[in-house]
Amino acid sequence: MPGLALTENFKFLIMEMYGKKICVSCKELVEGGIISKPTYDKYVNVGKLTVARRGARNREALVYYDSMYPPVRIAYDTKNPDAKERLQEQLKKQQITPMNIRLKSDDKAVKFYKAYTPKISMDRQKEYVLNAKVMNAMMVQENGLRSKHSEHGYTHKKLVRKTVVALCEELRESFKHTLPKSEPRLMEKFEDYKKYGYAALVSGTTGNQSSRKIGAREGRILLRLKRSKFPVYTDQQIFDKFNEIVSERNARVAREEDKLKPIKSPQTVINYLYKTSIKLWWYGVVYGEIAFKNEFMPQFDTKLPQMPNTLWYGDGTKLNLYYKDYDKKNKRMVARTIDVYEVMDACSEMFLGYSFGVENFLTQYDAYRMALETWKVKPYEIVTDNQGGHKKPEAQYFFKRICHLHKTTMPHNGQSKTIESAFGRFQQQVIHKLYNNTGQNITAVKESSHVNVDLIMKNISQLPTLEEMKEQYLQCRQEWNNMQHPTSETGMTRMEMYTTLNSPNAEPLDDYEVQELFKLLSKDSVKYNKQGFIFERNKQEYRYMVYGEDGLVDMNFHMQNVGVSFRYRYDPKDMTSVELWEVCAKGELKYAATATPKVVIHRATAERTEGESERLFAQIRAQKRALAGHYIACEELLLEEGMSEAYTKLVMPIPVGESQKSMERQRKEYADEELAAPVQYPEGVGPGTYEAEPIGIASPGEYTKQISGMTDIDFYESLIGSN
Predict the structure, then answer these.
(1) In 391-491, which ranges are continuous DSSP H helix?
(2) Helix (H, G, I), strand (E, B), or coil: what is residue 251?
(3) E-strand spans in 609-701?
(4) For residue 663, what are the contacts with CB-CB under 8 A and spacing of at least 6?
(5) 280 & 167 share domain
(6) d(CA 370, CA 342)
């Protein structure tokens, strides 16, 4: 029966976890007969149901259980009274099963209790070592459970505690350890062990510890010695120096109550100084304020983005791969390393773009350019560190264009940038497999982080070249991107996670939009002169000119802008053109023209190509006609003002290289509109715009026009009459 089939299927549609919160599917509510689909849609719209995940083709919509409209939640609980228990059972099945009854050896514990002061008997050492191994197993169990819970988006401290206690009791039956049987005392001892290590398991009566206490006066001396910078004391030296000071002081005082109490064990010094209440007062002095901040200051719990392209990280680091190179100074082959700047999507851990080289704005630019050109999406937010050149005006302009929000991490706060952790795992999981892996550093605790440097140095000739090493890196990046994402519940690779989902806050880009993003704006203005637009970048000179569609100099732009300053917008990877932007009032920019590299023509005729010659003579003709057109336009302006040779009887010079006959021909072309002036008259000036000056004011043109019809006698009579 259809109804029966629905019931059979529905029993599997129980609650599920979405992130760290319990959710119920739309299908549960609607097909389960709790509410109708129209009611569901209405409740979503008015906020009575909060959508955690929207439905898709192969994905059910989810709503948060705790925020459901109370009548709906009550109806759901009534219909599914065991939903939470079934969810809990499902989660329990995912817990780490108790470890096999086997304890891992601990050589460090053996050495610690063997060298402990005061001396510990052999039997007691064995007891402490066994208890330490049990504590280690409990820590492994606890960390495993918490990690598993975190993967599924929830925490269950009570369950973790019970599991750890149960493990302790199971090991007690097998190994007869002497840890406390009381759960509160056991957990107290467990917490002390995690804080203080092996010393926490030593009995308080060992070496009569209970009788040894450090008073205020003794504490002040110990703290002063620990804080000392001249000289700097080790903990053992503090023990020795303290007893020396106490011995000298006690020899000077008579009253017993004024004497200081010596310390019999260096461990007592350590126990006192490393108590948090005391450690606070010397840690910053010894290790610096940054270390103090990282040790004691609270940290935020943050949640990584749930969607790709919501947040991109960028960071530069040393690439742990050797390559061979020739040292010209020492004339031998050497092993070198190189830095790389990588851009990563925070959600998917997908490596998006990279650039080799020391971290600066150029490497940042290349890496982000690769990321955007490859994936054609504008992320919502980009976070970089405080290295590189992001403070430069060009960099600020660039980051403002390629994302909606650009931020930098807090100084000396590596925890705020996930890419450092991801890149570290990348080098450990992928890079380390290569023969030329450099390892981590000599202080790395894990032996697997070290390499046989002697072997590599002995076989430098076998190392790859720089180009071969770069190819290795590209293959490693590809392997990382195609590896399963560590938190994916569906087994998706980083590539699948990145390409399947996309944040609604990200902006898809087409080819033109991508190209426009990478154009930078110069910081300073450059003056356009008769030789064109000339500037210098990175110690290289660039010479540009504005040309028309015919390939010749745009005379209109050129003649009007000689002496005008422009800022230029350019693509560092493509300098075949630059945009000129005029700075207007209030610093606003107005597009003026696009300039291209200036055409260079050989001066020697023999070295000049046919195309060069044609372009040269065409440009000469164009400039002559432009000059003639401008000359004729100026003539019209003179006629308009009454200042031409016709009135002054002066012979006006014609443009250089022109004859009177050619000028007459070009005047005719000008009249027939076959020749035009390269530059328009200024606004309000030109033929038809002339107005007579007010009474009492005469322009030079009007005065000339007036006296031009007078004889010499008339002229002088006018002068006499005026006197």
Answers:
(1) 393-402, 418-429, 453-458, 466-481
(2) helix
(3) none
(4) 628, 631, 632, 654, 655
(5) no
(6) 10
pLDDT (tens digit, 9 = 90+) per residue, 257-313? 888 989 988 999 999 999 888 999 999 889 888 778 778 877 665 677 888 999 999
Query: Both 201 and 218 in a single domain?
Result: no
- Residue 11 tokens read as 């029993």
Q: Are residues 480 and 537 in the same domain?
A: no
Quick one: tokens of 192? 């002390």
Q: Is 84 helix (H, G, I), strand (E, B) or coil?
A: helix
Helix ranges (DSSP H) in 335-417 = 361-375, 393-402
Type of residue found at 720: I
3-state secondary structure of 600: coil
Instruction: Report the distance separating Cα 451 and Cα 448, nearest Å.
Output: 8
Residue 701 lies in a domain: no
Cα separation, 366 vs 647, in Å, equals 67
CB atoms within 10 A of CB 665: 14
Burial of 392 by CB count in 10 Å (0-12 exposed, 13-18 middle, 19+ buried)?
middle
Residue 25 backbone class (left: φ over 0; alpha: ψ -120 to 50; beta: rest): beta
Q: Which two tokens stand for residue 158?
A: 């009570």
Q: What pLDDT digit, counting tens, does each position of 537-549 carry? A: 888 999 999 998 8
- For residue 18, the model assigns a pLDDT of 77
Burial (0-12, 13-18, 19+ Cβ within 10 Å), 62: buried
**Regarding beta strands 377-378 and 507-508, do their DSSP bridges make them parallel or antiparallel, or are they unpaired?**
antiparallel
Amino acid letter at 629?
G
Residue type, 433: K
Element (H, E) at 319: strand 311-327
pLDDT digits 0-9 by tens, 372-419: 999 999 999 999 877 656 667 778 888 888 998 988 876 555 544 567
First to last CA, the chain: 129
The domain containing residue 584 runs over which residues?
Answer: 519-600
